Amino acid sequence: MHLTEVRLTCSTAREGFFIDPDSNAAKWVAANPDDPRAAKIGQSVSRRPAARWFGDWSKDVRAEVDAYVTAAAAIGRLPILTAYNMVNRDNGGQSSGGAASPDEYRAWIDAFAAGIGDRPAIVIVEPDSLAQLGNLPAETARAERTSLVAHAAEALAACPLVSAYLDGGNATWVTPDAMAERLSAAQVSKVRGFAVGVANFHATDVSCTYGHQVAQALSSLGMPGARFVIDTSRNGNGSLGANGQHVHWCNPAGRRLGVPSSIGVGGAEYLLWIKNAGDSDGGCGIAPDTPAGTFSPYLAERLINGQ
């Protein structure tokens, strides 16, 4: 769906955003009712609307997406989904994996889109994929990845009630002009817009400024009207440490939960919990023994307390 031709899908949801009943945090709370942290994590994390991520761990992505969107539609709520299965995902970093080939990815994202069909949903498309283009070793690899994100945009554009946002990195990673060029090449004009700050910690006003700069750069490229969303799941304390420098991206100390998923402010279309609070960024920072994507009650409690 074209970014200038769609209504806010939130208006189609009677009761707001869908809360994932099977998130990692929800599963931990259910399995550990006597843990003194369970009540706090349940109230502050697992009962908050956040994105469900789909990737190479999804055994039948069409069926799993369909089931998730069906559950949301049954109670009139709007689901937030993240597609995270890019070839050479995370460029071999902490969240490495993804589809084994371009053909496999195209089939996967087509099935993902088919699982949504003609129902409303918010979709975040391939976090980090465009921001990491500069780290790929060859132009052929960069062109291939861009074409795969473009294929995802086209597949999701065929879903009439989907608001899809291509990931646009964060405020201190890629310049707004460079990100606009990458988003343009990836067919952002076919979808609702782009996402900023996914799985990062920049304060909302910082991400808003960056989002506006990228949108302005896109307008200069002939694509006015691009909208953006911000990940606020862990940005309550912003990204600056006590020394005034930006904290490391992987499980840094002193971060806090941000504003729960809601209609946006400052020009952002939505503020969303895209990263699942309490899920590790990888075996580093204050959780050196917790692999990426694994829920840690220790991390969740630190985010709740701002420690």
Automatic annotation (TrEMBL):
PROSITE patterns: GLYCOSYL_HYDROL_F6_2. The keyword Signal applies. GO terms for biological process: cellulose catabolic process. Substrate binds at residues 53, 173, 200, 249, 275. It is an enzyme of class 3 (hydrolase). InterPro entries: Beta_cellobiohydrolase (IPR016288), Beta_cellobiohydrolase_sf (IPR036434), Glyco_hydro_6_CS (IPR001524). It comes from the Bacteria. Its EC number is 3.2.1.-. One of its GO terms (molecular function) is hydrolase activity, hydrolyzing O-glycosyl compounds. SUPFAM superfamilies: Glycosyl hydrolases family 6, cellulases (SSF51989). It holds the Pfam family Glyco_hydro_6. The active site is at 128 (proton donor), 281 (proton acceptor). Keywords: Carbohydrate metabolism, Cellulose degradation, Disulfide bond, Glycosidase, Hydrolase, Polysaccharide degradation, Signal. Belongs to the glycosyl hydrolase family 6. This is Glucanase. It comes from Streptomyces griseochromogenes. The lineage of its organism: Bacteria, Bacillati, Actinomycetota, Actinomycetes, Kitasatosporales.
